[in-house]
Amino acid sequence: MRSLTEIQQPASITPRVSKILKSKYVPGILFLVAIGILSNSLGRDYPLIGGAVIAIVIGILIRQFLGVPAIFEYGINYTLKKLLKLAIILLGFSLSFAQIFKVGLNSLIIVLVAVVAGVFLTYFVGRLFGLQGNIPLLISLGTGICGATAIATTGPIIKAKDEDIVYAVNTIFAFNVLAVLFYPLIGHLLSLPDNQFGVWAGTAIHDTSSVVAAGYSYSNTAGDASVVVKLIRTLMLVPVAVILSIYISIKSAKMDRGANQVKISKVFPFFIIIFAGAAALNTIAPLPKTFVDTTADLAKFIILMVMASVGLGTNFIKIKSVGIRPLIVGLLSSVIMGSISLILVKVLF
């Protein structure tokens, strides 16, 4: 009869758990969890700045003044490349395609026209100012769709450098703060009705947290309208990510002389498809509020970890070398989005 020490544990569980605990990714992931907890706490205390920007800043400061131990590198890269996809998928459970019908046809037209025009005009302005690399595209997507989330999602797809992502996120952040302060003032000066202001704020302001802050500071009705409209913009991540993936894959295939065809696995961002599936599931059979809230909170926390990993991989000297041109482009893009959205709101409402 075998002793207890000789009895093997279930093969399907113990080796798997042991492998995870001994994984080279664990130290880096735990390090990012710690930064995420700190960023989340500070983000609640300073909502105008937000946890995402704080996470990036903490990451940059650690890299510049303390350095990043090699033991953390695997976990940091894994978070940036893999866990980000999990965060986007989880975010899908908090969305519903039914929201498209709640905002009405006019609101939907405003969102579509403003987003498309804003993205293309911002990209054009960026190139006009001589911005190189992926910064113009990242700023345009962050401006047009959903701020830091759009930048974090599309950055890896277009193979953007960490420095480009950081600059784009910080540019978006700067004008989010201004939007929270000035949009309600402009709304009152123009005597905008609550629904008009809500649609305007939800269409023009970049980041969800800033939309919420500006909308509800105007009124509860405006806040409700702004959140729904902003969620519609977030859903546009699906077609945008797919289009970008197809473009990048075809471009890469053409550059590779040995590639006769584009691989499907490279063309389609499957995590975005799952993201859309999660939103579709919540549309067909609304999920329990507890589950939706939990997955949304987890998604936001993982995004904080991703932002921290971006900061940890950033060379501050390269950021300084870019200069202030991206900030000027960010200012112009914010004015473009705000103006187009306001004109459409006044015409269609």
From TrEMBL:
Query: Which sequence ranges are marked TM in the entry?
Result: 25-42, 48-71, 83-101, 107-125, 137-159, 165-185, 197-219, 231-248, 268-286, 298-317, 329-348
Quote the protein name from its UniProt record: Putative sulfate exporter family transporter
Species source reads Mesobacillus subterraneus
> Where is it mainly found?
membrane
PANTHER family in the record: INNER MEMBRANE PROTEIN YEIH-RELATED, UPF0324 MEMBRANE PROTEIN FN0533
Q: Which domain of life is it from?
A: Bacteria
**What GO CC terms are in its UniProt record?**
plasma membrane
- Name the protein family: Belongs to the UPF0324 family.
Keyword vocabulary terms for this entry: Cell membrane, Membrane, Transmembrane, Transmembrane helix
InterPro entries according to UniProt: UPF0324_pro (IPR018383)
Question: Ribosomal protein as a keyword?
Answer: no
Compartment list: Cell membrane
Topology relative to the lipid bilayer, per the entry, is: Multi-pass membrane protein
